[in-house]
Amino acid sequence: MEKIKKSKIKIFFDVFYGVIFVALILIAGLVALSALNIPRGLRLYTVQSGSMMPTLPIGSLIISQSQKEYKTGDIITFKSEKDIFVKNPKNTTTHRLVEIKNDKNVISYITKGDANNSPDATPISSDLILGKTVFSIPLLGFPVAFGRTQKGLIVMIVIPATLIIYSELLNIKKEIIKLIAQRKKTKKNEIKNS
């Protein structure tokens, strides 16, 4: 009975360890992807405000892809004028494209958050647009945003490393116990045969 109880506890901890480890690896991978340029113009962003509620709830992870042209109704992510030469700006905005203006062959875009009462005050130029939202996953942005902080990076490294070290120490302990038991058995056999 005691052996069955220990076995169930071990299975529980093995499953728990596996789930935590896979979740941390997934989140760490998403954090890495959000900091890098993914092929085909794809980029990951985290929704930080409620301006696009209910379409994009706070904490959503969005996948944005650069397009050759944008249409009214597209949800686009763009950077501010001060970050025009920054390839991966820290602060971006994701709003719906509500109007396209063409003034003397100069195209500008008017955007608006779905939850906002009025359009954004400043039109944006095409060189500020980072991409169109092609996919979103609610709530997954929270751990990714946390992973991009200094504390989050520490957690993403320290917890998996601790779990791996603990697991390996348990494996080493088991092997040592097996080795000791095998040596005792060998000594007993030697004593019997002498």
Automatic annotation (TrEMBL):
The Peptidase S26 domain extends over: 23-88
Its placement in the membrane is given as: Single-pass type II membrane protein
Concerning CDD domains, the annotation shows: S26_SPase_I
- Record-given protein name: Signal peptidase I
**Transmembrane annotation, as ranges:** 12-36, 152-170
List the Pfam families.
Peptidase_S26
Enzyme Commission number(s) from the entry: 3.4.21.89
Location(s) in or outside the cell = Endoplasmic reticulum membrane
In Gene Ontology terms, what is a biological process of this protein? Answer: signal peptide processing
Q: Name one GO molecular function term.
A: signal peptidase activity
- What keywords are annotated for this sequence in UniProt? Endoplasmic reticulum, Hydrolase, Membrane, Protease, Signal-anchor, Transmembrane, Transmembrane helix
Tell me the SUPFAM superfamilies matching this sequence: LexA/Signal peptidase
Q: Does the keyword Cytoplasm apply?
A: no
Q: What does this protein do?
A: Catalytic component of the signal peptidase complex (SPC) which catalyzes the cleavage of N-terminal signal sequences from nascent proteins as they are translocated into the lumen of the endoplasmic reticulum. Specifically cleaves N-terminal signal peptides that contain a hydrophobic alpha-helix (h-region) shorter than 18-20 amino acids.
Q: Which NCBIfam families match?
A: sigpep_I_arch
The cross-references to InterPro entries, in alphabetical order and at most eight, read:
LexA/Signal_pep-like_sf, Pept_S26A_signal_pept_1_Ser-AS, Peptidase_S26, Peptidase_S26B
Q: Which Gene3D superfamilies match?
A: Umud Fragment, subunit A (2.10.109.10)
**One GO cellular component term:** membrane
